[in-house]
Design goal:
The structure is a single chain. This protein has 169 residues and is an alpha+beta fold. It is 16% helix and 37% strand. The chain is built from 2 helices and 11 strands. The strands form 3 sheets. It has a 5-stranded antiparallel beta sheet with strand order 9-1-2-10-11, covered by helices on one side. Strands 5-6-7-8 form a 4-stranded antiparallel beta sheet, with no helix packed on it. It has a two-stranded antiparallel sheet with strand order 3-4. The relative contact order is 0.25. One of its GO terms (cellular component) is proteasome core complex. Its main location: nucleus. Pfam families: Proteasome. This is Proteasome subunit beta type-3.
């Protein structure tokens, strides 16, 4: 774990596309370097019916800028079923619409696992499995993230939220 501001509180998030569905997931740990403070800290927030954002980075005092966070934004157009996945760094540079994106302290591990589990045109169940397995296995390799995961799968007619237990250490 690095000693920069981006890894101070730990945490990781992952977004992945399917066919007319999109998923975003995060771990539940909040810490101060290697010390765990809370085990129910969500990093995912909903904006409207079909848009979700996740922030990873420095989660403490927000009175002063810049914000030391990386973000993931996912969305779904309910009319066409088109999905969107974008990631942004802490200065606001936004990626192209990608199939897979990760942010946070374990993002290198999770991105590799995500590439392994990703396949084009996954249905919602396949997308949930690929997303959850990528995140659960990736946080096992990072002491600054973990304590289970939250997975949101967004479809045209519903949003499914599942909480999964992971290693508790």
């Amino acid at each position: 774990m690095g000693d920069d501001m981006m890894s101070y509180n730990g945490g990781v998030a992952l977004a992945m596309k399917g066919k007319e569905c999109v998923a975003i997931a995060c771990d539940k740990r909040y810490g101060v370097q290697n010390r765990t403070i809370a085990t129910n800290f969500t990093k995912i927030f909903q904006y409207g019916d079909y848009c979700f954002v996740s922030f990873c980075g420095l989660a403490t005092d927000r009175r002063f800028g810049p914000y030391f966070v990386f973000s993931l934004v996912i969305g779904l157009d309910p009319k066409t079923g088109e999905t969107f996945v974008y990631d942004s760094d802490n200065i606001g540079a936004i990626s192209d619409n990608v199939n897979l994106a990760t942010v946070g302290t374990a993002s290198d591990y999770i991105f590799g696992l995500g590439e392994l589990f990703f396949k084009p045109n996954m249905n919602a169940d396949e997308l949930f499995e690929a997303t959850s397995q990528s995140l659960l296995n990736g946080v096992d390799r990072d002491s600054a993230s973990g304590w289970g995961v939250l997975v949101y799968v967004v479809e045209k007619d519903k949003v499914t939220v599942r909480e999964l237990k992971g290693r508790q250490d």
